[in-house]
Design brief:
It is a single chain. This protein folds into 2 domains: 133 residues, Alpha-Beta Complex (Aspartate Aminotransferase, domain 1); 238 residues, Aspartate Aminotransferase, domain 2 (3-Layer(aba) Sandwich), CATH 3.40.640.10. The mean pLDDT is 97. With 393 residues, it is α/β, with parallel strands linked by helices. The N and C termini lie far apart (47 Å). Helices cover 41% and strands 15% of the residues. Bound molecules: pyridoxal-5'-phosphate. Pyridoxal-5'-phosphate binds next to helix 4.
């Protein structure tokens, strides 16, 4: 068994990395330590690298399609890890989950129709709706006793009052880290079933459920949920392959699948990325061991941050994650407005984090921190933050 060294630092500069090379392009100062965008500072699993190198050696990169072995690998992963049995015909490959959600918006709704999201939520959920000329309806999550929950009464009222046609579910939820329980997803399915709402479930973070929590595939909660949803998955978060732009959308209902595929083809999105296919298949066939080691490392990273906050920065409250490698931290006790908080983080601490308001106004006073990096990077980041805070000066 290969033992991976997640402590090792890797230079990502000059790789066209958004995280490391795009600061000026995105209006940020050079030199900030980046813990924002959701990719990892770790190389992917060795079997994936080996498969890519072998494919590259062939030297010919013409038009490609997903083979039966590819679909078997994707299906095998869903069954082995989540007990979800699927048919290969359900799978539609897309060049990313954001593209899949935008396709769902166009395929399942008309201009002006209402689409519901639950802020604070991953920011493209808003733009996928508004940039396609649909009406955005929000049912904010409720933050109570340090934990987030859905407000089912508000959810159903908003659905009914606005004639919502589509719900973009973030399962598990980025940024608040909830791994929705089967019971919660059943209630979502009941409400959506009563009102004829299609659900697009973004399950890109499916593999990061923490000990004591599980990932429940939305389509697995009931027959009727399966008939009226799409489930968006990808190896990109799990195996750090975002740049290969390869994701798999499961659509059990043939009518919805036909509508989705028609929209997707009309956008010219149905070609495959040769390297994406190879990497996804290798990851799903041979990556489980790497993932287990990664998750154990991430647990220790989380323990480091929790301890650091408890002892050195008790005014910052960690929202205990149930899944994902993204931490949602409540900074409201600092008494700063969002501009002041951002200034402190960037100008004083020298960090690049995602400010909570990017995820909707409900994120005011919070920051999102990506802990998928070597521990020494986290130590640098949190030490800098502690130094920047007034009581530490
Ligand atoms: C919830 C969620 N969905 C989708 C994405 C991006 O997906 P893709 O790169 O496949 O478009 C991210 C990336 O951070 C995410 O957190």
């Amino acid at each position: 068994m290969t033992r991976y060294d997640f402590d090792q630092l890797h230079d990502r500069k000059n790789t066209s990395s958004i995280k490391y090379d795009a600061a000026p392009l995105l209006g940020k100062k050079e030199g900030l330590l980046p813990l924002w965008v959701a990719d990892m500072d770790f190389p992917t699993a060795q079997p994936v690298i080996d498969a890519l190198v072998e494919r590259a050696r062939n030297g010919i990169f013409g038009y490609e399609f997903a083979s039966p072995a590819y679909f078997a690998a994707v299906q095998g992963w869903m069954f082995d890890h989540f007990g979800w049995e699927t048919d290969w015909k359900w799978i539609v490959r897309t060049p990313g989950v954001v593209a899949a959600l935008a396709t769902a918006v166009r395929a399942f709704t008309k201009p002006g129709d209402a689409v519901l999201v639950q802020p604070p939520v991953y920011y493209p959920f808003f733009s996928d709706v508004t940039q396609n000329g649909r009406a955005l309806v929000t049912s904010p999550l409720v933050y109570e006793d340090g934990r987030y929950r859905m407000d089912f009464d508000d959810f159903e009222r908003k659905v009914a009052d606005n004639g919502v046609k589509l719900f973009l579910l973030c399962n598990p939820h980025n940024p608040v880290g909830r791994a929705w329980t089967r019971g919660e997803l059943e209630r979502v399915a009941e409400i959506c079933g009563r009102h004829g709402v299609i659900v697009a479930s973004d399950e890109i973070h499916e593999d990061f459920a923490r000990p004591g929590h599980e990932h429940v595939v939305y389509a697995s909660v009931s027959e009727s949920a399966a008939r009226s949803c799409i489930v968006c998955t990808a190896p990109s978060k799990t195996f750090n392959l975002a740049g290969l732009q390869t994701s798999n959308v499961f659509i059990p209902n043939p009518t919805l699948r036909k509508r989705f595929k028609a929209e997707y083809k009309s956008g010219g999105l149905d070609e495959a990325n040769a390297f994406g296919l190879v990497a996804a298949q290798a990851a799903y066939e041979h990556g489980a061991d790497w993932l287990a080691q990664l998750k154990s490392y991430l647990e220790d990273n989380l323990a480091f941050v929790r301890e650091f906050l408890d002892t050195r920065l008790p005014m910052l409250k960690l929202v205990e994650p149930e899944s994902t490698y993204l931490l949602w931290i409540d900074c409201s006790a600092l008494g700063l407005n969002d501009d002041e908080l951002q200034q402190l983080i960037e100008d004083e601490a020298g960090l690049w984090l995602d400010m909570g308001t990017m995820f909707g106004e409900e994120g005011s006073g919070f920051v999102r921190v990506n802990i998928a990096c070597p521990r020494s990077t986290l130590e640098r980041a949190f030490t800098a933050l502690a130094r920047a805070l007034p009581s530490e000066k």
